[in-house]
Specification:
Layout (H helix, E strand, L loop, with lengths): L6 E2 H14 L5 H13 L3 H6 L4 E2 L1 H15 L4 H5 L1 E4 L2 E4 L12 H18 L2 E6 L5 H9 L3 E7 L2 H13 L6 E5 L12 E4 L14 H4 L15 H9 L21 E5 L5 H10 L2 E8 L5 E8 L3
Parallel strand pairs: 5-6, 5-8, 6-7, 8-9
Antiparallel strand pairs: 1-2, 3-4, 9-11, 10-11
């Protein structure tokens, strides 16, 4: 990093904003405040109101390096090494997908399911397939103290990051990381299974924005030729890893037993639904994201 002279915060932010705007980066002002605030340990509001704050030469050098990385299209949160998700601050690493706000919808859909199971049984066990940072399962565990869970991933780097996140959030005793390709190394049964699997068609990946294409791990993006490989793998085996269905006194089965929640691509609702229905599941919930695109599907086993 080259030595940079000291300056005041508002000038530093204005310079970064101008560079981002000139490079065609959307929301240049927001990104400049977020990046510089993150580096200096300031909120966006503090960056905005404390414009006369002096930024010393050392911090100026750090900011210059971070701005250069953003101009190369590296996402802000990857530069900072952390991103907020469902109120949790999560560490990122090279082989973890950066969690997006749309994925919080999967957490919101599954929380009532998890709470009802805990109310009936006193406890619950969750499996998160392709856990990455651990975002989904750790958000669920943080909201439901009676739940424990397993986060699986094929990447040792991702599992290490998820475990560190669990420990930082005081959830380490209730979270276990397992290296597994889908269910290959998973043992036992679970009350619910969740996943944000890779669902982008292989031929579409070269066309993605560079922030995604060049910085998110390919294994977390590539869903195969039609984008549906992961859903087939999950649907075909999920029943064998869900808790056995136990009838209630009236002979009926609890509606939440054996639930699977998945994130999907915007155009995959019908095809993913058919895949799970063919495997004996019933669609019980569908949720659209903030752009009004289909984003989350929840299935329950259809028979006893």
């Amino acid at each position: 990093m080259s030595q940079q002279p000291a300056s005041v915060l508002k000038a530093v932010v204005a310079d970064a904003r101008a560079q981002f705007a000139g490079a065609g980066i959307a929301d240049a002002a927001i990104e400049a405040r977020l990046l510089i605030g993150g580096l200096l340990g300031l909120s966006s509001t503090e960056v905005f109101v404390d414009g006369d704050r002096v930024v010393d030469a050392l911090d100026m050098a750090r900011i210059a390096d971070a701005v250069a990385r953003r101009l190369s299209r590296e996402p802000v949160h990857r530069i900072l090494g952390m991103r907020a998700f469902h109120g949790l601050d999560l560490l990122l690493s090279k082989e973890t997908l950066e969690p997006r706000p749309d994925t919080e919808l999967l957490v919101e859909c599954m929380l009532p399911v998890l709470r009802r199971i805990v109310a009936e049984k006193g406890h619950a066990r969750v499996l998160d397939l392709g856990t990455g940072t651990g975002a989904i399962i750790l958000a669920l565990l943080s909201e439901v103290p009676q739940a424990t869970g397993v986060g699986s991933d094929i990447s040792e780097d991702a599992l290490s990051t998820a475990t560190r996140n669990a420990q930082r959030l005081d959830l380490g005793e209730r979270f276990q990381g397992v290296r597994s390709h889908w269910f290959d190394a998973i043992d036992g049964r679970f009350d619910i299974i969740v996943s944000n699997p890779p669902y982008i068609r292989s031929d579409v990946i070269p066309e993605l924005e560079p922030e995604v294409r060049d910085f998110d791990p390919p294994a977390a993006l590539d869903g195969g030729p039609d984008g549906l490989d992961a859903y087939r793998a999950i649907a075909s085996q999920a029943e064998h890893f869900l808790e056995l269905r136990v009838p209630q006194e009236d002979g009926s089965f609890p509606k939440d037993e054996g639930s699977v929640g998945v994130e999907i691509g915007f155009d995959q609702r019908d095809t993913v639904t058919r895949i799970f229905e063919d495997a004996g599941f019933i669609l019980t919930q569908a949720r659209r994201d903030y752009g009004n695109n289909d984003r989350v599907l929840v299935f329950t086993r259809g028979g006893p």
